Amino acid sequence: MTNQPDTDVVIIGAGLSGIGAASRLRIHLPHLSLRIFEARERMGGTWDLFRYPGVRSDSDMYTLGYPFRPWHLPKSLTDGASIKGYIQSTADEYGVADKIEYSSKVTELSFNTEEAMWTTKILRSDGSTELVRSRFVFSCVGYYDYEKGHVPMMGGEENFRGEIIEPQFWPENLDYADKKVVVVGSGATAVTIVPAMADKAGHVTMLQRSPTYVASLPAKDPWFDTVSKVLPPAATYKFFRIKRILMGMTTYQLARRFPKYMRGMVEKGIKAEIGENVPIDPHFKPSYNPWDQRFCLVPDNDLFHALRDGQASIRTDQIDHFTENGIKLASGEELDADIVVKATGLKLLPLGGMKMFVDGELAQFKDSYIYKGFMFSGMPNFAALFGYTNASWTLKTDLACRYVCRLIKMMEGKGADYVVPEVTGPAPDPQPAIDLKSGYVARGIELFPKQGEDRPWRNHQSYVADYLDTKFSKLDDGVMRFKSKAERPAMLQAAE
User: Fold this and answer.
1) How far apart are the first and last CA of the chain?
2) pTM above 0.70, yes or no
């Protein structure tokens, strides 16, 4: 077999992270070849998959967008279609759109130390397979299962005469005009769907087992018109990017350090918009502290206004079972419904379900330690991009891409064939890599790598700390090992 790769870098996924990684490679390492494999038929990832009414980001585009391609539109809390268009135009501008191979699912990755080469197994939609050899692999598939959400059975669904919808697989031409809709859930998907459907539906009820922290931000920053008149576009973008980063960090720190104060501020804001007809307790009074689980943001108070104006209502109760005409609650109340939307959450799935092997041994992703938030102990020339849980996804993934580009440049300078983070000495005390108590995290966190107590094995949720670390820290830090093909793993040398 030839020792030459088919491509220098394989990127898995053509969503926000994948296009960002490919663009960064074009900016910093234009001499490297790359191929992008996307399991779906279209670009966009999350922003193409989800097509339910009102789909949008609750992160602003000043921080969710790429810093190398500024967002200049006034509306920063924007809809999914606009985000998808932004991803597509970025791919075109940086010349990576033609590198994407669609309907190409990566099922297996295998690294050979003797060759310092990854072999990526691709399954095409026609059933054919291809093996692609590369020096480096970027996994940009996130941590959700794109093929299956968390949709618990609630009893009696077979008796219901209406339609039951999963947001992840929204019917293209669903007619809900003048119909009674019940949206089951209290997370980001539910608080988006309820006001979006309220304009056309007869009535929308948000049914939640327990409340979530929900706050509002203006879709268009109130300072935008003033600042954009004074500063040129590039400076305007930088101003709002820094403003949003600092606002997010300040809010998070206040929530963690002064939870009682933050709870009061959130409740005060809701009460001012929702009026007296909808009680804060129990509908907007969670049992946990702010940021123990994720915060939900709504643009321009749309959820609160839909509830205030009577277009929608909210119930906090347990589901007993489905009936022919709707849902029977534990309290005895029955909610009539023509359509029930199960916005009950997503399912975690590491690396899109692909298997990984290193020198023929199955690599247990869950047993590795996460290095700086995107590389993993014992996994050479491999990075997987994960965003923040308390800030915009892309803030973290773009830092990771820039760091890996620096790392590859140093590999080239040293003449190294591969790099791998190695745990030396006693293993760090293992802790969950995602520091949230949300249900979707608890259901799947055991499938993911662990983190330690200290850097570089600690996955801090701080953009400023990560920015300083990834931009200025020493690459050859004693943990990241630079190796050549002549170096064999100790266990293989011993076996010989």
Assistant:
1) 22
2) yes
